[in-house]
Amino acid sequence: MKKVVISKEAAKKLRAKFLWVYKNEIISSANIKNGEIVEIYSKKGEFLAKGYINLKSQIVIRVLTFQKEEINFDFFLKKIKKAFLKRQFIAQTTNSFRAIFSEADFLPGLIVDNFDNIFVIQINTLGMEQFRNFIIEALIQLKPKAIYEKSDAKSRQIEGLSTNEGFIYKSAPYLVTIKENSVKFALDLKNSQKTGFYLDQRANRKIVASYVNKDFQVLDLFSNTGGFGIYAGVAGAKFIKFVDISPNALNLIEHNCKLNNIKNYEVVKANVFDFLKKEKETQIKYDLIIVDPPSFAKSKKETKGALRGFKYLLLQSIELLKENGYIALFSCSHHIGLNALKEVTIEAASDKKVSLEVIEHLFQDKDHPYILNIPNSLYLTGLFLQKV
Description:
The protein is an alpha/beta fold. It folds into 3 domains: 2-65, Roll (Archaeosine Trna-guanine Transglycosylase, Chain: A, domain 4); 73-172, 2-Layer Sandwich (Transcription Regulator spoIIAA); 186-387, Vaccinia Virus protein VP39 (Rossmann fold, 3-Layer(aba) Sandwich). 29% of the residues lie in helices and 31% in strands. The protein has helices at 8-15, 73-86, 126-129, 132-140, 154-158, 202-209, 227-234, 247-259, 272-281, 303-320, 338-352; strands at residues 2-6, 20-22, 26-28, 37-41, 47-53, 59-65, 96-101, 110-115, 118-123, 146-151, 164-169, 175-180, 183-188, 217-221, 239-244, 265-269, 286-291, 321-331, 356-363, 381-387. Strands 16-15-14-17-18-20-19 form a 7-stranded mixed sheet, with helices on both faces. Helix 2 (73-86) packs across helix 4, helix 6 packs parallel to helix 7 (227-234) and helix 10 (303-320) crosses helix 11. The radius of gyration is 22 Å and the shape is globular. The N and C termini lie far apart (63 Å).
């Protein structure tokens, strides 16, 4: 087994169960091939962990275990079964859930979503790619209807990997219908973002919808396939306007509205930033505005620009909001957390001379675990605000 020696600071983090070793934390790593398993040691010769290495990546090593154990088929089968078992509670509210959440399930580089027993997988790192056959064989033991691979993340390019997409075990229609909290959604495995649907917002959709009444006019920005707006419609909202730039997403909104018998709605194909400028001129006011943009800050250096984007969205949304109306504001980037959202909200409220009350703090649902030792596993945060 190849050995890697890491710095004192990196060793301290691994002892605290952090799973990453960065390029500048490696002291020695002779004759090692990218993608292979290595043992990690401190400068004093203390065994710390085993993981896979890729010198092309900024995150050079991702830890798989803190034990001196074999990384074989049984290792993956045990971890995958444990991850699925951990999600059993979710079956009370939905037939779909995130089954494996990368580092948070101690399988870094692997995502598996279960959509009514059709598994959609993403293998995002070279190290995890080496165990592709083990992973697929283990998943087959859980008896899925089919397995669809959607390994098209940009991280694969960084890792020196090509895109993989398509059914890899049995097959099924690309259009899949799922249920959560009595609401139905269709998702398109082939023509959709990420694995097909944003399961992480499940709890937040229910929370936000619980404030909706029959007189509500709702604006769902960056609506994707309509999650929040559809929930608002099922809750009895008078009218919902969905805004997204993707034609595929807008087609699915139409389909999802029919699935849930929602009739009073409008879909708008537009860049949200441009739409907000024009919408102000209409004098239309809303009772609820959902602001759920894609990740504006995929790295720390993008934070400043991302916060400017959030502030603009908030300023425009406040103007479109009725008195006592609500805004649901989300960030899906670890680099812009709850405190940053609060700071930018204070700035926007001050500029518009309004008061915004925090009604709820919002986070990713429980099938996307947040491990305290792994700060990056908390990536979805939100504020549910009322204009008072």
